[in-house]
Automatic annotation (TrEMBL):
Cofactor(s) listed in the protein's UniProt record: Zn(2+)
Origin organism lineage: Bacteria, Pseudomonadati, Pseudomonadota, Betaproteobacteria, Burkholderiales
Residues reported in the UniProt entry to bind Zn(2+): C98, C100, Y124, C128
Gene that encodes it: gluQRS
EC number: 6.1.1.-
Function: Catalyzes the tRNA-independent activation of glutamate in presence of ATP and the subsequent transfer of glutamate onto a tRNA(Asp). Glutamate is transferred on the 2-amino-5-(4,5-dihydroxy-2-cyclopenten-1-yl) moiety of the queuosine in the wobble position of the QUC anticodon.
SUPFAM superfamilies noted in UniProt: Nucleotidylyl transferase
Family according to the record: Belongs to the class-I aminoacyl-tRNA synthetase family. GluQ subfamily.
NCBIfam families per the UniProt record, alphabetical: PRK05710.1-2, PRK05710.1-3, PRK05710.1-4, queuosine_YadB
Enzyme class: ligase
Position of the signal peptide: none
All residue ranges annotated as the Glutamyl/glutaminyl-tRNA synthetase class Ib catalytic domain in the record: 6-244
Molecular-function annotations in GO: ligase activity
Binding site for ATP: K240
Entry protein name: Glutamyl-Q tRNA(Asp) synthetase
Source organism of the structure: Caenimonas terrae
Amino acid sequence: MGYLGRFAPSPTGPLHAGSLVAALASWLDARAHGGRWLVRIEDVDTPRCVPGADQAILQQLAALGLAPDEAPRWQSQRGAHYQQALDRLVAQGLAYPCACSRKDIEDALAAQGQPRERHGELRYPGTCRDGLHGRLPRAWRLRTTSQAVRWHDRRLGPQQQDVEAAVGDFVLKRADGLWAYQLAVVVDDGAQGITDVVRGEDLADNTARQILLQRALALPTPTYLHTPLVLGPNGEKLSKQNGAAPLDTADPLAALNAAAMTLGLPAQQAPAAHALAAWVPAWHHSYNRAGD
């Protein structure tokens, strides 16, 4: 199978310096392995999406010379596919309805004497695994089992996580009717035939959950590479949520050089197009996939 990669931004605002690192890395990885590179707009979380941000992102990528090999795809247009996947999981007994609110989960964890938070998430204690007991369903969850999910990250090395112990049965469809990121990304990676996922290190914690879903839906598991993060002045990950400035593409080479330095690539003095071409062999040398 040929290499097929993707960059999948959420249109909660324009690209910033941190998101460019992931975009550049995924583009370079595809080019270094003679593959194709796609762009997918992950806009299932509609309340957080900013009108026009999707087009702004596409314009920024074009200004930087990062052109996808196919027309972009929007997740908001693919709800029927996510429903089909959920129906399949329900039929297999792997997904079930949940009536719990966030407060219900907090109270249940407190009653069990468990820590309240894990990386900002609540570990689901399995309250509705055996039925709703007369309560109305709110969300749908994947039924997990206690097992170590192992994978190899091309930058971080061997990884593993027991999803049941770490996060519990996780949400597939939210109480507000919106599709959860975990289900949407797995369904779309499978539908598009994505072979390699290159994304920011902050998303590495999602990988085990996505591998569980891939197995449940009989989808192949891509190869993963998680890139270094750009940190803000406060030491936290640079993000739209903490006020990261929109990426200035007036000087494409300057923006690309900053991203390249985060990735351990040498700065270039040539025009942006020449710089991109120069980084491809350098990336291949540093991040060549096994067997290529």
